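Regression test case RT-17, inverse folding.

Input:
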């Protein structure tokens, strides 16, 4: 739901409506990390890269890692800044570049958190993504008015515990929507 005091969606999920056919966002769930008058940014939480794992990233960046961390999946966070790494995570929050999303959910993209994760000393709950989703000023608000997205509170259990392949359906159910009953036709009252 849009915050009526600020109009911004930081700390919310965007869930793609069935009519959204952009291959980057079909049945996607995006955790909005920041939303200001300058635009919005978020991380797609239900797309996993089929060819990359954390071990590949650690090797590319020459970061030492323990074996159990090598198979951590890499999410496709969106089609913007595809050469950058973003980490959506729970506590602890003392990393150099932490951006608070909610009091218990942050986004970081600095080497210190990546090194800690590689060594098994990072946050207990996290997803590593390459790229993010972004909107210019007013674009996201316009898309919501056009019935492209549903919104709801970002739920950490969905981000970190629900299998990525079912996060869209689970996110819809958590806001009281049966995804099987959604139409791909937009209506305006």
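Golden output:
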């Amino acid at each position: 739901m849009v915050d009526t005091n600020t109009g911004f969606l930081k700390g919310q999920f965007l869930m793609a409506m069935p009519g959204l056919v952009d291959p980057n966002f079909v049945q996607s769930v995006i955790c909005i990390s920041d939303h200001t008058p300058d635009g919005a940014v978020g991380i797609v939480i239900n797309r996993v890269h089929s060819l990359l794992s954390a071990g590949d990233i650690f090797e590319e960046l020459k970061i030492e890692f323990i074996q159990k961390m090598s198979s951590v999946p890499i999410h496709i966070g969106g089609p913007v800044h595809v050469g950058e790494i973003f980490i959506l995570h729970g506590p602890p929050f003392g990393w150099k570049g932490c951006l608070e999303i909610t009091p218990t959910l942050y986004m970081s993209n600095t080497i210190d958190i990546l090194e800690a994760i590689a060594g098994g000393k990072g946050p207990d709950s996290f997803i590593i993504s390459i790229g993010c989703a972004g909107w210019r000023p007013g674009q996201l608000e316009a898309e919501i008015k056009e019935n492209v997205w549903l919104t709801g509170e970002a739920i950490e259990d969905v981000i970190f515990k629900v299998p990525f392949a079912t996060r869209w359906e689970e996110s819809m159910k958590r806001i009281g929507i049966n995804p099987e009953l959604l139409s791909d036709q937009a209506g305006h009252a």
